[in-house]
Design a protein that fits this description.
The chain has 3 domains: 219 residues, Rossmann fold; 78 residues, Orthogonal Bundle (Tyrosyl-Transfer RNA Synthetase), CATH 1.10.240; 90 residues, Roll (Structural Genomics Hypothetical 15.5 Kd Protein In mrcA-pckA Intergenic Region, Chain A), CATH 3.10.290.10. The chain is 46% helix and 14% strand. The protein has 18 helices and 13 strands. It has a 6-stranded mixed sheet with strand order 1-6-5-2-3-4, with helices on both faces.
Amino acid sequence: MNTGKNANISQDINRLLKRGVAEIIIEEELAELLRSGKKLRLKEGFDPSFPDIHLGHMVALRKLRQFQNLGHQVILIVGDWTAQIGDPSGASAARPMLSKEQVKANAETYMKQFFKVVDKNRTEVKWQSEWFGKFTLTDIIQLTSKFTVAQLLAREDFSARYNSGRPIAVTELLYPLLQAYDSVEIQADVEFGGTDQKFNFLMGRELQSMAGQRPQQCFMTPLLVGTTGSQKMSKSLGNYIGVAEPPNDIYGKTMSIADSLILDYFELLTDVPDKDLGEFRQGLKNETINPMMLKKRLARELVTQLYDQKKANEAEEQFTRVFQRREMPEEIPEYRVSFDQFKAVELSGFGRKNPYTIKGINVNRLLVGVNLAESRSEADRLISQGAVSIDGRVISSSTMLYYNIESGSIIKVGKRRWAKVINTDK
């Protein structure tokens, strides 16, 4: 017997089941399956209503990759069928139904980002419509007969909406059953996701037992707190770091996270050894380590994972030059636009002492025009917060409608967004 090899496998399994894990149902059974040498089928489903992946999703995806490294197979289920009927996925209200075209486009974007973390060669992609597209009314009725309304209303978000008098569509009540049936269809050994998916995972275990299959193990990862240090990471809250964002943005956003998040991010998003994490924890407690140095290490780790070491080094150099030395980046996006289309309406009048004429560029419209703001309302908000400067001068609300901008001016929004505007009228 190769005791050294067995010891290494045991260490790998222990680390797999302990670090970055919120709950496993049932941990002892999963450990036994891993020791058995069986190639496990790992279920990961996603709702293509929202195609972008952020670091919060990456916590579970990294676990999938770790299982793959031990020889196991990921089955990625595209929820194209449930997305077309409206998928609550733990939301407090029903989500809109999507067309087949929308689902396909979102799925393509999702998978491109998914495979930045998970090994594509050890992943099998399944579309729900492969089995649900053949379902008849009889199949649906047979599926619903296996569970009671009381069981479904035990799900926390359904219960809250029911008790508050908010509507719950019958199609939404079907969703946990459909997700559970996915596990039966692919004969899942383990299902992965956040703690908010626990109810649906348990439904899958129950339905598999009814179908004569071995119940899947439920592998739940912690919900990552967003960059501001309070609520969970969410695109709608704006406290997220996307896995497909440019390296400079990932690095810069990581440097802006709350100090209280440093250790959690290291533990959940990197492979930095536990021994090092212990030293980081002690150093922060004793104030012998500068949090900024740890954030730099964290930012390098994340960019290297999602891109490569070269991009990580370049992002760090950019951050040092722009934010620590207060220098402009070497490369600033250049926009060639007609200044005439952004001119403010000329206004003339009499002040307390002299006549006046107001003219110039409408700054909030220009910000939208060069992709520094998504809308004029967002541009107004950025300006009111003092987040916009032109050629080093902060723009105030009183000057936003009539600022005189020269061709070649540099616009800066926040800490990381820049634009150079060239007037094509001349």
